[in-house]
Amino acid sequence: GAVLGYPAAEVVVRTDAAIAFAELERFRDAKLKSLSSGMAARLAFATQDDVWIYDFGRATRSRLTTDSAPDKNPLWTPDGQRVVLTSRRAGYQELFSRSADGTGRDEPLLTRAKDVVDLRASSWSPDGRRLLFIEVTEVPPTRKSAVWQIALERPSDATVLLQNAFTNDHA
Prior knowledge:
4-stranded antiparallel sheet; 47% strand; 1 helix; mainly beta; single chain; 171 residues
């Protein structure tokens, strides 16, 4: 059999690599049934075009986005109710938020300048009220990378935390 288009042998290799990278070896044989009620074991991931949710407890996957523009870089909200993602729906990169159960519409969260070549949600503040995101702009011959933060109640008020000519992959 195959999972997500990968042959079984490739799934084993990729799974082993992911478990090792995440330092989760001690949880490899943990039974999902032992999770308390209300806990969920879900993974948001992107294919070439869409964001999907894989539910480990039910062993099911469901497509979260279906827009014709490529959707990528999913990030769960701290409460697990929504997923923030990057899309090029207007011809340039923007951040959207979508209910993790697939209901409702994708809600625009942040629109940036058209010279942005990479935009992605990176992490949350400890209180879950501010989102850190990475933005890479390119106006040849200059390429700049920046880590920004926005307060969810006022996403138009973005604040730059770090800016340089390097790629800041993780905030």
